[in-house]
Amino acid sequence: MQTPVEIGTRPQTGQIMDAPVPDGCGCQADTSCACGGHAADRPAPEPVPEEPIDISTRTLRASSYLIYVDLPRNDREMLLVHGYTGAFDKVSHRIATFVRAREDRRAPKPLYGDWTPAPAVDEGTELPDSYISVLIKRGYLTYLTREEELRRFTAIADDLHARSNYPGYIIMPTYDCNLRCFYCFQDHMRTNPSFAYLLKRMTIPMADRIFDAMPQIEARHGIAPESKYARPITLFGGEPLLRDNRDLIEHILARAHDGGTRAISAISNATDLDAYADLLGPDGIEQIQVTLDGVPDEHDQRRVYADGTGSFERIARNITMALERGAQISARMNIDRRNISELPQLARIFIEHGWTESPRFVAYTAPIHASNDKTERATTFSSWELDQALDELRASDPVMEVIGRPDDNLQRRARSIFDAGGTMGGQPTFCGAHSGMYVIDRFGDLYACWERTGNEKVRIGQIKPDATVEMDAVNDSMWRTRTVTSNRACAQCRYALFCGGGCAVLAEGRRGRIDTNFCDGYGERFRAMVAEAYGDFKAGKVVTAGAAGPMMNM
Amino acid sequence: MAADRKSQLPEIESFNLAELDVSALDVRLELTSLLPHNLPGCNGNCATHTFSCNLNVSCGKNSGCVVFA
Lengths: 554, 69
Description:
Largest interface: A-B, 88 and 48 residues
Number of helices of chain B: 0
Largest sheet of chain A: 10 strands, mixed
Oligomer: heterodimer
Shape of chain B: extended
Order of helices and strands of chain B: E
Helix content of chain A: 25-40%
Number of strands of chain B: 1
Strand order of the largest sheet of chain A: 11-10-9-8-7-6-12-13-14-15
Largest sheet of chain B: none
Structural class of chain B: little secondary structure
Helix content of chain B: under 10%
Strand content of chain A: 5-15%
Number of helices of chain A: 17
Radius of gyration of chain A: 25 Å
């Protein structure tokens, strides 16, 4: 066992150099809400009408949450999807036109071609009652006014959010890392001496304190200590699996097992994974997300050690070893306009290493976001742009099938509906930062989002020396109440319960507040993936394994 | 009945059952089941995104949820 290092001390609040994030959500409004802005944007609650609605006085209109999915090379049919009932239907052009004529706002422009002129409502009333009845039951047509339907949507989304609120833990053994990737959102922690206090390792007593505190956190979510709650636990950093962290990680794994968690996961650069070989597999560290940023030459310019040397070969050896040990590897490739062209060559390297033959290996891409001043925004893709660029690569080189697009999971979920029914959507938040995710660092500080860690001003709580949990009501509320109903743009969006409102950190970067929307081309992405899934379904294309999406958004 | 909401009409092909019966005109609906999965705690976006969820939500797997064993 290693000698525990001191539970780190850090500068007093006044001495801490502020991390490059604004206090709270950055909201400057002066309303009474925790951060000053939430209440202003939230649709005002209104009393629910108790009397039955008399439809004879109402106008039938297209639902505000109706999604039109046009199909390439098919002007006879269209898919309709409903944003809160979850309905998926194929309808004739006549039906689609009838519904669209009852829109009280402009329907999004089709992805493939353009709308034909819609008839005036009084010209389009010839649809049999049987059809109208089905369209109402599926949610596409409604007698509710726009505001009434907004209230219905708000009630549904808030109900879903209240029900789906179970805790998961992201444990950060250290903020330190042995690599110096230029685009890292934590770059300042290792390059600015003012943050050096963050870089020490968590102690074993602190790890014990964290596990001792978990029942209190679970009690906040209505989980009794005697219930058999298998805690989802993920290691994150910095680099959690540094060679010198071995004793600590072994202890964390043992405590996780004691609590009933069979296996844990890790986000790791995998450079020191060989030090953990005996802990990898179905009963240990089972799932590992590893980043490879291109072919060896390109990767070795991006993911470098502090002395500038590259890391590809070491990571590759460790991926092979981890797969042999029974671990699952999710290879993430952070893509911008400068390294995308190398992906087919990288795919061949995956095949040559034999990784793609393992059902435990998946590879996917994610766009690099300009999260520090070393990343040029002009070189980045949005998720939608990356989807399209990858489609072009796939069309020209079939080997690209082994590398997933950002939205392949969306496509798979839609495909599963065409194949077997079921539903998708019902997602009132973008990620666990707004429900039950607890990111816990070496100080015992609790954060909602791992991209907003290392600054106690934004922590949502802390674990005290006696292992009691003390929450920061303001920060906790700010993060946990960001849903698709906490800003009006999302609450009125057709795609809201599929998208969840987008990443709060990226929304803050764009608009200065986390309780705003970050769309990232979601409407186009959704329609393109649903249309593609339908095309594959009609063509009888076999659903392949692998190339799934991210284990985690980061 | 949910099955009643699936269309049998020639110009409408339904691929799934809409989870909510919205033919009733109440603004506030009783959720008849959780979306998208009728399991406690699952909204398709659990606290760890997909690490612990095997419900084909976004991880591509299709067996049972391991969070509530």
